[in-house]
Amino acid sequence: MTGLTNAQIDNCAAEPIRIPGGIQPHGAVLVVEPQSLRILQASANATDLLGPGYVAGAVLELDGYVLDWVRLADGSNLLQSFERDGGLFNISGHHMPQGAVLEFEPLDQGEASSIEAMFPRLEAFADAILPLDEIKAVAGAVADQVRTVTRYNRVMIYSFDPDWHGTVVAQSTDGTLPSYLDLRFPESDIPGQARELYRLSPLRIIPDADYMPVPLVPLLSPVDGQPTDLSFTGLRSVSPVHLQYMRNMGTYASMSISIIVDGRLWGLISCHNEKPRRVPLQIRSACNFIAKIFSLQISSLQRGAHAAQRIALKQHETTLLPKLSRADKLPEELSKHAAAWLSLTNAQGAVIVTEDGMRSVGETPSRHAIEALVAFLKSEKQDRFATDQLSAVWPGGSAIADTASGILAISISQLHPSYVIWFRSEVVRTVTWGGDPRKPDDPQERLTPRKSFEQWQEVVRHRSISWTQAEIESAEDFRNALLNFVLLRAEERAEMTEELERSNKELESFSYSVSHDLRAPFRHIVGYAELLTAREQNMDEKSRHYLRSIVDSALSAGRLVDDLLTFSQLGRTNVAKSRIDMNKLVAEVRRSLEPDLEGRNVQWKIADLPPAWGDGALIRQALANLLENAIKYSTGRDPAVIEILGSNDGQQTVYRVRDNGVGFEMAYVHKLFGVFQRLHRAEDFAGTGIGLALTKRIINRHGGEVEALGAVDEGATFTFTLPEGGRDKPNA
Amino acid sequence: MPDLRPILLVEDNPRDLELTLAALAKCQLANDIVIARDGAEALDYIYTRGAYKDRDPGHPAVVLLDLKLPKIDGLQVLETIKSDPAHKHVPVVMLTSSREERDVLSSYENGVNAFVVKPVDFNVFFEAIQDLGMFWAVLNEPPPRGWNDR
User: Fold this and answer.
1) Does any CB of chain A come closer than 8 Å to the CB of residue B53?
2) What angle do helix axes B74-82 and B39-46 make, rounded to 10 degrees?
3) What is the ipTM of this complex?
4) What fold is seen in the domain A575-723?
5) What is this structure's pTM?
């Protein structure tokens, strides 16, 4: 952090620098109405410089081609030299909504010819800088060239960083003025609106910092009654703050040329002279040309560096992606390739955070800190987030500045807060400022250009090396690749689900065929055997026994088909829950089992049962199976005792069916609920071996559990639970 | 007084047919039993056309209709009968092997009068058929004779 206050910036930013109402005295300005060629405004020195007729209200008299240009108003600019009354002038012009603005500057004899000598020199310069592949080297050559043609004492190449602080990256000097090479100047030295003006109008010159401004007459534009916009007027009077700044620096003449790279103000060529100095228009144009070449060279070098880095980073992506595409679990796989992962953005640490947890490699903050960081990123709601100074955007950043001063994060899910985050450690740097940027000289003054240019060193903390555009793009590419994987995987899952649904349907139609076609033959066997039995009245006992066995076998096969179907159906049918009166249900089931009780002495002990929450038909089936078992396995007991109990603890209802029958060995309890698992020989107890499996499936589908307790000859106890729910729902 | 209009039995499986006839015989019903072996034949009978174009006019007392039939299946036959105002009052009992609930549901949607899953146990089957025959052929009060008859 620099700790800069905004007071100075704001003050200076409020200066009306585009509409100063006056010009510098080394030339004259006329504002002309294009159709009538009537002079709308004239600088007060126009009559001195050009002659008596150049006042507001007069019709412009000049060479025909100038008048033609004024009338044409096609957006082109004018730049000519011409002779008048023995004096040589440069004339330049541009059109504005308030009229055509013409600027006149007297030209010394000899200057006009020197311009011809300039072009071979510029050509040689362009050839010389072309092979240079470092911006700093090009900047040095530019500074030398500009100083040679302008003969200023010092020419600096000033470059803006992303925060608009400036650094002098190259300098050419004759030793008259102090060296500012490598010094840093705060953003407030060239405030925002000045930078915008620099971007629009490429060259400014101040021949004498002590000049007296010359006003326009009249002061306001007759077109709209507003101050005249002199943004593009080279002779525009500059802010008194800036003049004071120059005097404080010990420089009385200056020129600055904007360096625009890809539409952005990259920096300035800043020229200073100890004594007042005027550089003629032709030389200025040559400098403009140098600046343009410089801009192009910077642009091409930046693009080249960017492309080279993109290619280098792409290689890491190329090694990484094939491995990730085949991986089952992305985070695990990613953490196996730490080097490539980190190299994607030249980071020192990285983490992937998904709904399943996080995996990190290299130097990262603690798990706890990362969780907090993820919460911050989530609140930012951006697909990509990059900073080289986390503590400046998030208060939690200071505590983890050692490992995470810089973060580059990509969001990898629309649904969950899932991120890949790269970390860069703090790099402590010492910056030498051209004067302490935090100290205003006199806070009482309205505008206070600083007087001190003593070097001042600042230690910059909580900052990492900045992420380059190529690194950020690499992260974005990686994000797109990951999102594609996720999408692909979702598609595969959807396909698998479809496949499962299809095979489920097939199974269903298979069950249907079984139910329809397999039952029929059994039905026929039983039917014909019964018909035969009825017909052959005097069959011997053996034949009768055979026929009965045929009927019994076919009947049990039919039951088996029915039970299996019920079992498989249970997986498919929906559980339609409602409140069930269990007392009523038990009574019904008991009634349906009455045929099994013939010739038996069964003692029922049925408690008052709490109501259940479930599918009535299914619970009835489960209960029937348990009671059937209790009756079956207590055959031979006199009396057989069957107990039914129930309770409700608020979370679930619990029911218990207990008998005093043959019981079972607890060692085999795990087999009890399996399909076709039997613990007794078939001739001892009839049954298909599906009943308990069915009961378990029904209870489980309700979210409950079944449990059996027993011992040989000591009876069995079956307990099942049903979760409570829908207490406030009406009975379905 | 017993309704002596015939019972229409629609059954393609010869064994089921034989067993059902045996069960109906035990009921000693006076009604004639007309047998159709597929859905198309059944509809020919109902609509007095094809092989049945010269039959005595009138609706059957009850249609015992198997679900799975060649040519036109049971549900289609049911739908045709129940969606035709001239025939929709004819009682239809679905006889089937299947307990699949979708059959039950779609049958009831089409206005079936009863639905009987053929039990494996012949005695139960016998009782079911007997009950059906008795109820629909004897006890159930049909619409007045001549009402919508052709």
Assistant:
1) no
2) 20
3) 0.75
4) Heat Shock Protein 90 (3.30.565)
5) 0.54
